[in-house]
Amino acid sequence: MHVAFVHRRGFGQFAALASHLAETGHDVSLISETVDRRIPSVRVIRHRVEPGPRADNQMARHLGIPDHHIRIGHRVAETFDAMARHGEKPDIVIGHIGWGSMMFVKDVLPRVPAIGYCEFFYRAEGADVGFAPDDVPDLETRKRLRLRNTAQLLSLDAIDGGISPTRWQKSLYPAQARQRIAVCHEGVDTQRFRPDRDAALKFPDGRVLKPGGPPIITFVARDLEPYRGFPQALAAAANVIRKNSDAIFVFVGGDGVSYGTPPPGGGTWKQALLAEHDIPADRIFFPGTISHDLLRRLYQISTAHIYLTYPFVLSWSVIEAMSCGALIIGSDTAPVQEIIRSGQNGLLVPFYDTDALTEAILDVLREPAKFLPMRIAARRTIEQNFRLMDCIAKQKALINTVLKAA
Questions:
Q1: Is residue 306 within a helix (H) or strand (E), and if so which, with residue range?
Q2: Contact yes or no for 193/226 (Cβ under 8 A)
Q3: Pairing state of beta strands 2-6 and 27-32?
Q4: Would the pTM of this model clear 0.85, i.e. be above it?
């Protein structure tokens, strides 16, 4: 069977499934703009990178993103057309529908089954937009959000099935589309991401962090920004450090903005927020973006792991941290509530309540042993619902169902 994956930015959510299919004898291809990694026996076919959306006038601000997505869709369609003309037509296509990549797949390959990865459907209410107290979407914002879903709506009309990583993310899609969307996370390698009392992490200054030493509070995000609660986490760190003489905070993430907007005064959110807090440099680390292996060790030595997020895409980081037995102190937002029951397999606090976050961290620091059952329950949650091979088995079952129905 020839399986073709489509993702604008490399393998992304398809990495484990693509690797497994290639290892078990299937012909696997990736059609993409860029490559985030190489997987043995998987052929990567890159199409031309389209310049981003224009926003030089009001109409361009409305139509820039749909236009960009259409151009990406055309590039993917051209790629599949060339493959078909050279006798390399796939048996099934699996692709992310968020950037237009899947928009024309069924036009160029009308009899090839297609499965869409349904990650996030934009809405003016009930998700990230309008969540912040000062964020009241106006009419222009609402119109732009509706147009931003153009590629997804066209793709949903054509694909034979869909897949979302969580129930909440699926719930954002239109009701008529949800009937064809299965829920299955990509999964986590629970053998690799597991508790390890002997784990240690050495920083460039020579300091070694490990269990049994100073308590370590961790925070991980692609970028340190408001969407993932960095302002509240940093403020809580300043509060905790004033009341606890030992705790060390490690904030992992880049200085860019993946979601939302830059700080009003320019620069990075880290620079802007550190200027508001007096935090001793030896009590807080900003290692930037680190390798997956170092992340794993960080989760393993964590006394408590802060995971705050707007109602948005659930991060892989929280799943991996729970698999390592980390104690999660999360926000009581919908994506987190789906996997954490406060007081059972972690703790939840209101997203904007810095005092509640501070007290939760201090409570853990006062009696860390009291929270051991929650750590065990967190690990069990992942083993029962997110084990990699179980998730791959569900994905393969969906593939077989779609193929049989074609």
A1: strand 304-307
A2: no
A3: parallel
A4: yes
